[in-house]
Specification:
Blueprint: E1 3-10, H1 14-26, E2 30-33, H2 40-43, H3 74-87, E3 92-93, E4 98-104, E5 107-112, E6 116-124, E7 131-132, E8 145-146, E9 159-163, H4 167-178, E10 183-187, H5 202-211, E11 215-217, E12 221-225, E13 229-234, E14 237-242, E15 245-248, E16 252-253, H6 256-261, E17 288-290, H7 305-308, H8 310-321
Parallel strand pairs: 1-2, 1-6, 2-3, 6-17, 8-15, 9-10, 9-15, 10-11
Antiparallel strand pairs: 4-5, 5-6, 7-16, 12-13, 13-14
Length: 322
């Protein structure tokens, strides 16, 4: 038998949890579903990552976020959002993937990997961190290729290639270099390090490249990945370099296929921005709402926890009035 709720929230990240909190406040029945763990995207961040935002900008549900530093760490954030979930007794279903959504005359029927639901409304708060941009080259499926970076220790005394030129790529290259990688090579499609790299980090990476501690091939692309080497196309021709691991920090994208399967319209602009009412966050499909980072489409730096927390209140207030 299907579980019946007023609101089904897809995604147990900070904004999905904020939606659950607002539902609790208004007395709406709800369930928060995630195919991974609680705040799965944050869990997949590097273990020693520090947020750009201060802790107060990450707070939800009037639960204080106390950090030992000016800006909180990943481990502090995981602890905080666990505490939020417990404090509000949020109804979460983790490690449960949605497989099919069917529109009903009034509401939706949702089939997950574990059970079925009938919900009057659906909030999609899935973020963008689950689908990395692929290199689409032979050998990318080898275990040595990583699209998520955890910590530097496994790469000690190894030949490492880092793909990309933005903040994450630069941070990874510098860290594995300083933690004892045998060699670090950056393969960069653009002609320079991304201008948006943190200003206090930019001199460090520029100097390491200039002195040769980190080798960088600009305007270059990996064309093939083998067990012990890489084929790279550079402006000076094709080269082969020794390699043990490829850390492809190429960025991530929203799951547009899930949005489209529900009938949600995707814009024709360069960022494929989903279509929604910015006063209610409702898509072109009545009863389907967007919250958080996914609202920006491919422009994944448009929305953050701190500027999309208000989505939860907008959505739940609109649903409650109906």
């Amino acid at each position: 038998m299907s579980e019946k709720v007023d609101v089904l929230i897809v995604g147990a990240g900070p904004i999905g949890l904020a939606c659950g909190i607002e539902a609790e406040k208004t007395g709406l029945s709800y369930t928060i579903i995630d195919k991974g763990c609680l705040v799965n995207s944050l869990y997949n961040y590097p273990k020693n990552m520090t947020f750009f935002s201060t802790s107060d900008r990450l707070e939800i549900g009037e639960v204080p976020f106390i950090s030992h530093n000016p800006k909180p760490t990943r481990s502090e954030a995981l602890e905080y959002y666990r505490r939020v979930a417990v404090s509000w007794k949020l109804k979460t279903r983790l490690y449960e993937k949605i497989e099919k959504v069917k529109k009903l005359p009034e509401g939706f029927e949702i089939q997950s990997s574990k059970q079925s639901y009938v919900s009057k409304s659906v909030i999609i708060a899935t973020g963008f961190y689950d689908l990395p941009y692929l290199l689409n080259v032979p050998g990318e499926s080898l275990p040595k290729v990583k699209h998520y970076y955890d910590e530097p220790h496994p790469y000690f005394d190894m030949d490492i290639a880092v793909v990309g030129a933005a903040n994450s790529s630069v941070d990874v290259a510098l860290e594995v270099y300083r933690k004892g990688a045998k060699s670090v090579t950056m393969v960069i499609r653009e002609e320079e390090i991304n201008p948006r790299v943190k200003y206090w980090v930019r001199p460090d990476i520029d100097n390491r490249i200039k002195e040769g501690s980190i080798k960088a091939y600009f305007e270059s692309n990996i064309t093939q990945i083998d067990e012990r080497s890489l084929e790279v196309n550079t402006p000076k021709g094709d080269i082969t370099i020794p390699n043990d691991f490829v850390l492809a920090m190429t960025g991530y994208q929203p799951d547009f296929s899930f949005l489209k399967s529900m009938g949600a319209q995707i814009g024709t602009d360069e960022f494929q921005t989903p279509v929604y009412n910015d006063e209610t966050m409702e898509t072109n499909v009545p009863g389907v709402f967007l919250a958080g980072v996914i609202c920006g489409g491919l422009k994944t730096n448009a929305w953050f926890i701190e500027n999309s927390r208000e989505h939860a209140e907008l959505i739940i207030n609109h649903i409650a009035k109906k």
